[in-house]
Amino acid sequence: MLGATLSGKSMYLRNLLTGLAAQPVALVGIDCKRGVELAPFAPRLSALATEPDQAAELLPPLVKEMEDRYDLIKARQGIAPGTPEELITSDIWGLPEDERPAPIVLFIDEVAELFLVATRKEEERRDEMVTQLIRLAQLGRAAGLYLEVCGQRFGAELGKGATMLRAQLTGRVCHRVNDEASAKMALGDIAPEAVLAACAIAPELPGLAVAGDTSGGWSRIRTPYLSLADAAATCRATAHLAPDVPALALFRPYVPPMPVEASGPLATTHPATE
Ligand SMILES: Nc1ncnc2c1ncn2[C@@H]1O[C@H](COP(=O)(O)OP(=O)(O)OP(=O)(O)O)[C@@H](O)[C@H]1O
């Protein structure tokens, strides 16, 4: 999902996240802008990384979880071949409900922050993370792992692997952008007319976007208005719906308990002598 500053990216993300919050889906966040965007949703997040170092620790367990799920599908395929109990599936959705792992959606806010490097060591870490993200984007779907990658721009200038990662993302949403090149990054490989439609979005209409996918189909969409306070409240109210994903247990964000409204003293004191 792309868009210039104030084009409506946060509003879109908020809607998507709260929409999923009510469903049995594990939500995972990487927000290297210190978590300012995703931290308000922390109560409903199964994992949150707010620094590149944390993101680098979070991605390997996600890749491992994906591989374990492939093993699970493979093991289940081998049961009772040729009998009515045989299970023919190549993704988690064909597994019996009680054996099916919960889908995981990974939100990455401001992807450029993940690509930024200052030192040689950071460059190595970045390359590893990008490779892991490409694997998740390429193979994750069958294992019920999905990526929502957000940014102002998402092109080759971000660094090695950026366009390869982008090519794996099959659904695209482009809000108002500052130049045609940015719209092309989002939609150019999907439909040229969609690029023109994205360039025609007026600044007075934040939340208006062009959504398309690799089938070539696209349409104009408008995100409904949803305040941050309401979105955060939904995440608190649905916190108990976060599925248990043991691989992510270490990454669950700390959420301070809500202050309870003062209910007055339990006992009133009276002077011993009147
Ligand atoms: N669908 C909408 N309806 C009404 N107002 C909207 C809508 N979407 C966004 N806005 C308003 O437009 C402004 C910018 O939206 P938002 O913060 O989502 O943009 P952004 O692209 O995330 O900006 P930034 O990159 O600066 O974080 C906000 O004041 C928001 O309330």
TrEMBL record:
<keyword id="KW-0067">ATP-binding</keyword>
<protein>
    <recommendedName>
        <fullName>FtsK domain-containing protein</fullName>
    </recommendedName>
</protein>
<keyword id="KW-0547">Nucleotide-binding</keyword>
<dbReference type="InterPro" id="IPR027417">
    <property type="entry name" value="P-loop_NTPase"/>
</dbReference>
<dbReference type="InterPro" id="IPR050206">
    <property type="entry name" value="FtsK/SpoIIIE/SftA"/>
</dbReference>
<dbReference type="Pfam" id="PF01580">
    <property type="entry name" value="FtsK_SpoIIIE"/>
</dbReference>
<dbReference type="InterPro" id="IPR002543">
    <property type="entry name" value="FtsK_dom"/>
</dbReference>
<feature type="domain" description="FtsK">
    <location>
        <begin position="1"/>
        <end position="184"/>
    </location>
</feature>
<feature type="binding site">
    <location>
        <begin position="3"/>
        <end position="10"/>
    </location>
    <ligand>
        <name>ATP</name>
    </ligand>
</feature>
